[in-house]
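Field reference: "sequence" (input) and "structure" (output). Example, Protein fem-1 homolog B:
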Amino acid sequence: MYIEKTMHDTVINNNNGINPEENVSNCNEIGEKNTNENIIIKESLRDRIYFAAKDGFSLTLLIILKDLDQSLAYKLLNQKFVEEDGQTFTPLVIAAKNGRYKVVRMLLKNYPNIDLEAECAVNFDGHIVHGVGALWAAAGSGHLTIVKLLIHHGADVNHQTQTDSTPLRAACFEGRLDVVEYLVAHGADLNIANAFNNSCLMIASFKGHTSVVEFLLKNGALVNERALCQATALHYASEMGHYDICRILLEYGAIQMKNEYGMSPVIYAAEKTRESVVELFCTWNELLTKKEKIDALELIGASFANDKDNYNITKAYKYMLLGMELRYSDSENIIRKPFSTPIPAYDNWIECQTIAELQAIEFNHNSLHMEALTIRERILGNDCPEIAHPIIFRGAVFADNGRFDRCEALWMHALKLRQNIQISVQRDLLRFAQVFSQMIQLGEMIRFDTVHCFFFKILSVLECCITEIESNRARLEKPSRKDDVVFIFEENELNTTTALYLLTIITKCLKARTVIINSDDLTRLYRLMIKINKLNLKLKDGQTLLHLAVNGVTPVDDFHTNEVCRFPCVDTVKMLLKCGAKVNVFDLSRNTPLHTLVSTLQTVRYAEEELILTVEEIVKLFYEHGMHFDAVNSDGLVAGRISGISTTNTDTFYLPIVAIENNFLLWRLTFLGNIECLIRGLELKETTLKCLASRCIAQHKIQYQGTIPKDLESFVQLHSASKL
C-alpha cells in the first residue's frame, strides 16, 4: 500500500502536480501552435518573396532570401502563389511576365537550381493558359532580354503548355519578330502546333503580323498545314482581311482548300466583306475557276447587303451585278443559277436569273436584301455557322421599323438554322422574349395576328427553348472534346430564366382578348408545360421555376422584358401549378417557394395594394395545391417567421376576416406585417398531429431514417433542418 502511494506521489512530483494526460495534451497543443506559427511565417515569407519579384525589387528579394536556409529558399522560390483571379505564379514566372530583368538575373545567378520549367496558370489575352513556364511568359509578353537570359540558363525553348502552345507561338501571337527570330535561332520548332493543330503561321496570319509571317515562311513553315477545323493560314488571313499576308502566302504556294464547313479562303473573305482580298484572289493567275469567282462576287455583294458593320447597298448591287455579268460573259457557256426552293422567311423570294432581272430591282432595297439572303444561303449552305448573323440583323431592322411579323419570321429561321447545327441559341431565345414583350407594350399583337397567330409563334419559341435545354443537358452528361462544360451550364441557367419570361408572356396573351387562341394551341401549351415541369429546371442555387415566379428579385432582362415580366406573378404561378409543378420543393437553402415569396416582398416593384392582392392569391394557390406551411428551411424557420416580414407586435393590426369558398380564410392585408399573420394563420390551420410529431422528432434530433416507413421520411424532412 505504501509502495503504491509512493509510486503515485513520485508520478505527481515528476509532473510538478500536473496530470500526465493533461501534460501530453498541453504538449500537443504547444506543438500544434508552433506548427501553425511556422506555417504563418512561411506564408508570410512566400508572400514577401512573391511581391518583391512581381514588383521588381531585386535587392529586397535578395536580402530576404539570403537570410533563409538554402533548402527553404528553394522551396519558397518554387512554390506557387495564387492570385485573386485564379492565376498562379512562381516568383520567376511573374518576374519574367512583368519584365523584371534584374529579378530574373538575380534568381538565375544566385539560385541556379531554381525550377525553370515550373508550370503556372496565366491570364493571356483574357484567357487562362495552364502550364505556362517562365520562357513562355517572357516570350508572350515580348521581353527579349529575359528570353535571352532564360535560354542562356537552359530553359526549354519548346516547352509546351497544357494546350501544346510553345513560347514561339506566344511570341507570334504578339507579333514580336525580335523574340521570334531569337527563339528560332536557338532551336524553336516553328511547325509545332497547339492542341487544335493551329500552327504559329496560322496565329501570326490571323493577327496580321506580316513580318512574322514572312520570317516563318522563309524558315520553313508549312504554308498549307491544316488545323483540326481544316482551316489553313490563308483562311485566317482572309477572314481578317489581311491583304499583304494573303499575297505573301500565295507567293509561297498557298492554295484554296475548304474547311470543315466547306468554305474556301475566298468564300471566307467574301462572307466577311473583305473587298481587297476577294479582288486579290479573283485576279491571281489561275487561282480560281470561273464558277468560284462568280460565287465569290455574288457572296460579297450579298454580304454587303446585310452586314451590320459593313452595310453598303451600293457595293452589294455592284458585286451581285459583276457576278451575274460573269455568268453571261460567254454566250455559249452561260452559267445559270441553280433553282432552290423558296424560303418563307425571305418572302419566298426567287433569285434573279438574268442581268435584266437584277437591274430591275437596283433601287428596290427590300428586294435586294431578300436577293442577298437567298444568295448567301445557296452559296454557304444550311450547315455554315456564319449564315445566321445577317438574317438576325435584317430581322432587327424590321423590328426597329415596327415590322414585327417579318422580324419574327427571319429570327425563327435563324434560330432553327443554328439549332440544326448545334450552335448556341441562348441569345436568340432571349431576343424573342424581348421582342414579344415590346409587342405587348405597343399593342402590336392585334396587327401581328392578321398575318400569323401571335400565340402560336410564342409557343414555337418556347418549344425551341425546351429543345435547347434538353440538348445542353445531354451535352453536360456526355461532353465532347470541344464542349466547355462551365459555359454550357451557365447557358442552361440563362435559358431557364428565358423560359420563365416566355411563360409569363404567354400568361399575358391568355388574358388578352385581342390574341387569337384556339384549342389546338392550348393543348400544345399544356403539353409543353408538362414537359417543362418534368424537366425539373433549376438554377445553381436550387431555385425552380416556381421559386423564380414568386421571387421579387428574379433577374429580368432590362430591354423591354422588365416592363412585362414582373415577379411575383400570379398567372405564371397558376399555370405552373396547373400543369404539375411541385409546390413542396426546396432550393439549396431548403427554402420552399413560400419562403422565397415572403423573403423578397420588400424588393417588389408593385404598389402596396397590388402587392397585397398578389400575395393573397399566390398563398391561396399554394394552399389549394397542398403546400406545407410549417415546412422549415436550413435555418429552421417556417415561412411565417422569415425576418423580411416578421413583426414584433402583429396584434396591433386590424385584421378583418373574410370568408371564402371551401372555408378558406384570408385576411385583407394592408401592411407587410399582416402577411405574416396570414401565413401563420394558415400554418396553424393546417398543422396536423403528423406535423407536430415530425417537429418533435426534429427538435429532439431523434434518429428516424430506417426506423419509420420510407414514405414518411420525406414528410419528417419537411419539418426538420440541420440548424434547428
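Residues 105 and 149 are 7 Å apart (CA to CA).
DSSP finds 35 helices and six strands in the chain.
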